[in-house]
Fold these 2 entries.
Entry 1:
Amino acid sequence: MSTLVEIVKSNGEEVKSANPSFESDAIMGSLSNGKACSSNGTAKKPFKIFVGYDPREDLAYEVCRYSILKRSSVPLEITPIKQCQLRQMGVYWRERGKLESTEFSFTRFLTPYLANYEGWAMFVDCDFLYLGDIKELCDLIDEKYGIMCVQHDYAPKETTKMDGAVQTVYPRKNWSSMVLYNCGHPKNRVLKPELVNSESGAFLHRFQWLEDHEIGEIPFVWNFLVGHNKVVESNPSTLPKAIHYTLGGPWFEPWKDCEFGDLWIKEMEEYKKAMEKKEE
């Protein structure tokens, strides 16, 4: 894991630190409700978000991160999960399988470990565009669950996705693409490097270390699958709060005209202008 953690106050000011644990305790934006992302109102640390990173999708990661930060009204600590860094640290040594379409297919399950098994943290794929405030998602947290996620009933018809990667079909498809982890939950302590490096994809992606009643549900709009979920014009509750370009996003040439692609491109252009302005 990178030692550089990006901490953002609620006023949008960014602070870079080589000592994330120190900065997490020291930096806290003022919140109107007196809490960060906590269901009991006692948290004083920024909410941790771990984003799956793949070198082929660096721009997708940057835009995802930008979209989260721009709309958040609570302090956040965002860290990309980079497989190469985890390997250098001796935390990840699993050989890449033929069906792994990204470098974070399995590293995602190290989220509780990377969060020191403390509090709640979120993992999200990099091919997301956030349109809603993370605070709204945090307000859904229920301490009785080990994890919370959108419980899709999804069986893709396509045989390939993204840049030609093989499309696989399995139970609970896409459930693990955006997960709120109760990192302090006793059962999540089994998610140690040894288990993540050895267990099957079925065990991990289906959350088989948990009982079904320990998996909480989040509204589908927080993991709105392009090409699967639909907006009902007469129903505002169907408007996406986080768009997931699961089959491929506009950063890949074949998918530049995909549904909601214009929103991503607009966000990407805004991000680039913000970076140019920052460099001046």
Entry 2:
Amino acid sequence: MSVMGEPSFANWAAQRATGFGGNLTVVDNVPPEMLHMVDAYWYQYAPLNPLWHGILGFMVGVLGFISIIGNGMVMYIFTSTRALRTPSNLLVINLAFSDFLMMLTMSPPMVINCYYETWVLGPFFCELYGMFGSLFGCGSIWTMVFIAMDRYNVIVKGLSATPLTKKTALLRVLIIWAMSVGWTIAPIFGWNRYVPEGNMTACGTDYLSKDVVSRSYIFVYSVFVYFLPLLIIIYSYWFIVQAVCAHEKNMREQAKKMNVASLRSSEASQTSAECKLAKIALMTISLWFMAWTPYLVTNYSGILTNSKITPLATIWCSLFAKANAVYNPIVYGISHPKYRQALQKKFPSLVCNAAPADDTTSQASGVTNVTAEDKSAA
């Protein structure tokens, strides 16, 4: 439906038949009080087919439902299970908390706006929407960085590493949110701004203004919230996989000298720790690229080039970034065997295959436990 509540598909079809809407643009349905926030760039595009609004609204609604339920379960299980209340898992809980709030604040407003086919919540909520999306996105990204750094510290440094305490973990959580708030309130005070984008159903940073202030924010923000975190995660997992591969090689050589097939039980040797860890590392980095790179490309295209950024492409790139809140519970929660055991106990109907009774080692962070057992066996 349109803002006025009239059926819009028939109107759109008629306009399309007479020359794709005549002089109508994607901005025409925007309320008058919002027009000062809309960049002149968007006036060149005709209104989207209402079917796209329906598809986008449905997609963001489904993603929001999955993310809110999934991250809510991760928070509940990690906080209510004694064995999972460890300092390292405080970071996992923080990630779930950030992703939970991300879709709680992003999904319902966008569903409403897709229904009305434009932004109908006013200028203040547009700024708030853009700020929340940036805040929780930044919080999730830097939480993933600290998780990678913690695993690097435990697995690569091993016994020489300084153990993560609850106090240190809480301090890192505080640093994450302090950085996130600092970056995301900057546009509110004039360093860039939050504006409607794409098909006018969502708001984000202004990547179309060519002034130095707007461009500088996009550049600096992308360095500290995309490139630097990505490099840290790649660096951490690269050395983690290397360390585990080296250990596995030593274990195989030692087993060969002792004339045994393996120093581990047959169950543990079915899937090597290096393979498990490599898969999780690859999944982490791949999902990072899938989620955030399209939106980064959109931002850079806006401030650097004159290439056409269509409303439909823009909003889909934004949706990909929001979808990261759905991936994280799977990567950081369900890949944890103790989490699966707790999930089976609390929600048995959601578990297809029961985890082994003694499967108490995290695939991602529990490699050090395997290492310690191997060394004691040696």
